[in-house]
Each structure stands twice: as C-alpha cells, then as structure tokens.
Amino acid sequence: MKKTRKDYGPFQWIDIENPSEKSLSNLELPLSLDINLLEDSLKTGHLPKIEKTSDYSFMILRAYTASEDEKAIEIGQISNKIAFFVSEQAVITIHRAPFSFLTDLPENFDSSDELVLHIIKDLLLTFENPIKTQSEKMDALEQSIFLKGGSNLSIEKLYFEKSKARLSKKLLVIMQSVFNQFKVEDSLKTNLQDIKDTVVDLTLRTEEVVDDANALLNSYMTFQAQKSNDVMKLLTIFSAFFLPLTFIAGVYGMNFENMPELQWEYGYFLSLLLMLIIAIGIFIWFRRKKIL
Length: 292
Known about the structure:
Elements: E1 2-7, E2 12-17, H1 21-25, H2 35-42, E3 49-52, E4 57-64, H3 75-78, E5 79-86, E6 90-95, H4 112-125, H5 128-148, H6 155-181, H7 189-251, H8 267-288
C-alpha cells in the first residue's frame, strides 16, 4: 500500500494506492468512512456511482487504462476505478492501479471541490486518445472495405474496437449521471459544467465509433454477399452454356447399335456445329438480357 498526504491549507488530500481491506480499516483518516463504502472502493469492476452522507460525498469513477491492442469485452478490462471521499476538510482518493494524473497536481487549490474537479477533468482526458485512435481505425477499416474490397479486414479486430467503444460509452453515460448529482460551490459551477460538456462530447464521439463499426460490419457482409452472388452468377452462366452441349454429347455418346446418326459421314462435324450454334444463341440471349 502507498499513502500520500498533502496539506492545502483549508483542506488536506490523502491518496491511498493499492490498499487491502485490513490496512484501510487500520488507517487514521480525517473522515469516519462507512465500511460499506470502503468495500465498494475496493471491489473490482464496480461501476461509477455517487452517494451522499451527512459528512461527505462518496464517488466512484473510472479512468481509461486499456492499451491500444487490448482485446476487451468487460468494463474492468478497459478501465480502473478511483473512489473519492469528499468533504470541506478533506479529500480521500482510493485506487488499486497507479494513475499518472494524480502525481503532478498543482499546489494551489483553494477548496476540496476544486481539487476533485481538477482530478475528474484529467481522468476524462484518459478517454481522449483511445477514442481518437478508434475513430482513425474505423477510417482505415472503411478504406479497406471500399477501396480493397475488404480483403485485409479483420472481423475480430473490428469486433474488439466496437466492444471498447461500446464499453467507453457506457462508462461515460454513467459518469455523466454522477456529475449531474455532484454539487459544488457557486464559484466552481462553470468548472463542473465544463466537465459535463466534455463528457457529452466524448459520449457522442464514442457513439459515432460504435455506429461506424456497425455500418462497416454491414458493409463488409454486403460485400461478402456480393462476392458470393458473383460466384453463383458465374457458375450459373457456365451451367447454362454447357448443359445443352452436355445433353447433345450425352445423347450421341450412348453408342446404341440402331442409332442412324452414327453412320453419317459428317455426323461429328454436324454435332459440333449444332453445339456452336446453341452456344452462340445462349450468348446472344445473355447479352440482350444484360446478364453478360
């Protein structure tokens, strides 16, 4: 467990990284923390939420931590949570994973709410680059489909990019609800509104990535169906050409004793000529029907 304490004058900030339940219960903290909320702060995979007590506000938020190539299908695979206990006298943050945005904080916060809003803003920035990268990947996959016929498209890759965008959207929507319930002093309401606007922007961008992924998947399936149709069309054309020719060859290949055509001097050439006429006739019919 790693514990950091900073005194900002009007309040103090205590950051606790990777604690155990036992170590938390033995710590001397400026706030009397409810045991159920402490358990929530340590529980893995917990979704964002906010609760208010008579002494403090309790929040759980999640920062985006997945790598670019992460194959994620669950919330816990793309993000790690951070719990906040916020009062006028103190801010306590509890988290398991290390967060870079908690290491270089300014030294001039005037209130606990101002510190929390600063951390939240940096937390939301962790979603910025992943969403931008996913959007760029959607553009690359779109080019692969429409310019290269989808030959280099990986359905698995598209699925996981869609999954990460969908999970990000879910997190952002829930955190937006948390921020709508979070109350700050009047002088910081514009800061909170800026955070809300950022969440809306990120949510819309993740939704766009999800929509793009769905559209690309549908386009890919359409291209694959078109390829199958082209193959079936080609096989049908070959069948239409060779079926009557095969019939003629089959009839005159039976070699019955009483087949008068077998005695014709030019029977072989006449049968070839008949096959040629039939093939030309089929070709002309296909051209008129614009099949070829």
